[in-house]
Amino acid sequence: MARFSRPHRPHHQPRHDTHAFSLFLLRNTGTHHDREMIRAGTTNARYLGLATVLLLISAHGHAARIDHLQILDSLLKKDYDRRATPTNHLNNATTVQCELYIRSFGSISPVTMDYGVDLYLRQKWQDERLKHAQITESLDLNDPNLVKAIWKPEVYFPNAKDAEFQFVTVPNVLVRINPDGEILYMLRLKLTFSCMMDLSKFPLDNQICTMEVASFSKTIEELRLEWKAEKPVIMGKGLRMPQFEIVRILASNCQESFQIGNYSCLVAEFYLSRSVGFHLVQSYLPTILIVVISWVSFWMDVNSVPGRTTLGVTTLLAVSSQSSGIQSGLPQVSYVKAIDVWMGTCTAFVFCALLEFTLVNYLWRKPPCTRPLNVARGSAVNGEALTRSASTGLIRRTPQETKMCTSTEVGIASAGFETRPCRSSRANKRQRQSQQILAQKIDERARLAFPVAFALFNVSYWLYYLK
Question: Which residues form the Neurotransmitter-gated ion-channel ligand-binding domain (predicted)?
Answer without folding.
Answer: 70-254
